[in-house]
Write a structure and sequence with these properties.
The chain has a domain at 42-280: outer membrane lipoprotein receptor (LolB), chain A (Clam). The chain is 37% helix and 30% strand. The protein has helices at residues 2-34, 42-53, 117-122, 128-131, 151-157, 163-171, 198-205, 248-262, 292-297, 301-326; strands at residues 56-69, 72-85, 90-99, 102-112, 133-140, 143-150, 178-181, 187-193, 227-233, 241-246, 268-280. Strands 6-5-4-3-2-1-11-10-9-8-7 form an 11-stranded antiparallel sheet.
Amino acid sequence: MRFMKKIVALCAVICMALAFSACSASSVSELSEMVTPPSQTDVLEEARNTLETAQNYQAFVTASSTATHNGVASAGKQTAQIAATETPFVWSIEMENAFDGYTYAYSIYTMQAETESDTKAQAGEMSEENAALMSVYMAYDGQWSYQQIDRETMMQSLQGYDVKKNVLSVLNSTDQWQKEEMEDGSIIYRAEIPAEAVVSLADEGNYFYSMGMANLPTEYYEGAPSFLAEVRFSSDDTDSFHVTLYLEDVLQTLVDHLAQQLSGDNTYEVESFQLEYTVSNMNRTTVAPLPKEAAEESVDYRNQIMLLQEAAENEQELDKDQLKEEIPSSVEPQQTEPIQTQS
């Protein structure tokens, strides 16, 4: 009898244990539902939203290529380090180009022009035309130059370095991003950017500027394929990320069309072409002031050219005036006596 009681007690304990186990499993399940890991696009979405609203950022742009032409290999690389703020609008760009061992560097610093209209702008009286006027400083080989141009023209010339716009265009070009978590803790999103988006992305982002192929007509992109894009996060921190575009097949399409237009014979083979953007310090970036030597030593070449043209025109007018003085404007006819005839 006692033995039977022990058996019954043991069964009761087991039942209670199973019951608590079930309750515990249920609780764990409910808890896990409450702390479900982020979905595949959460990290990417957060980064996209942060960049879209960012008032300032730092970026690094790299365009690298390898190719062969008539069996001779060549390699090129262009890098740009950028600090940008939107209010006030200031960009600082440090660039370096390298091609087959030859390297040169230059700097660009652009900001809203300091004109008499600035005071009116602060008072809300500045016209849109004046507000769009930009001061652009550029240093090459130790010499700074300066010019004032409208903002639209400036942005068109520097569109390859408008990292915020270019990266957002890529992120918004497809919703088919696939997430992969790496062993080192980094997160990679990959997507095939559709062929129908290639023309607008490449044109707006000036993807092939480093290859001397800026603003090509649309027909040169005919037959251009889709391309792979990757977005890498070192962790789940969305403050910084790295974007890589694999564009060798698109570049080969452009090269083929150009060869057909020029000679019809193309021996230029693109082996690789990658365009990379690294974005960091969003909303935590301050652009350094304009270098002192830029403010004090810049040469306004456009103004000098205008002055030279004006001087040349004045010299031409002076020459004309001198010529008029040397050559009489009219010659008085000689007085001759009338010929008398005999009747």
